[in-house]
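To the wet lab folks,

You asked to see what we're planning to order before we commit. Fair enough. Below is the target structure as tokens, and below that is the sequence we designed to fit it. If anything looks off to you, flag it before the synthesis order goes out.
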């Protein structure tokens, strides 16, 4: 259950229309269109809605799928929910702090990562802070 709660109107005021669509209405940005798909600098990815730390650049990898991909999240930063939309059985990933939709997690794709998981995350749901 998210800790930070805001009204729909507060989210609409704070977020861009595109961010609102992804974070609050569970839209998906077009593949290869996101700002962070090809960013591999050192730093931290936070929730674009509330600023909670979500992913370290140390866990980011190039899955060639069109969205930023991570093999692990920062402990306690995300929650998982069953998603049966569009006739597919998937696991949705949301921000544990504000409940914002981040993307989905997939397992068993045999990427050469320590967890064999791929957090497929929308760039619009993230903010990147480079390591100083």
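Sequence we intend to order:
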């Amino acid at each position: 259950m998210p800790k930070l709660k805001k009204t729909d109107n507060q989210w609409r005021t704070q977020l861009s229309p595109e961010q609102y669509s992804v974070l609050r209405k569970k839209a998906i940005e077009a593949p290869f269109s996101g700002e962070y798909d090809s960013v591999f600098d050192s730093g931290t990815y936070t929730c674009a809605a509330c600023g909670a730390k979500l992913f370290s650049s140390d866990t980011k990898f190039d899955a060639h799928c069109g969205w930023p991909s991570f093999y692990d999240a920062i402990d306690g930063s995300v929650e998982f929910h069953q998603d049966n939309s569009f006739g597919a059985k998937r696991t949705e990933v949301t921000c544990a702090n504000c409940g914002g939709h981040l993307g989905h997690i997939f397992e068993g794709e045999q990427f050469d990562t320590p967890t064999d998981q791929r957090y497929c995350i929308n760039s619009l749901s993230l903010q990147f802070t480079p390591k100083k």
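Structural context that might help your review: The beta strands are 43-47, 53-56, 60-61, 69-70, 78-83, 90-95, 101-107, 117-121, 126-130. The mean pLDDT is 95.

Thanks,
Computational group
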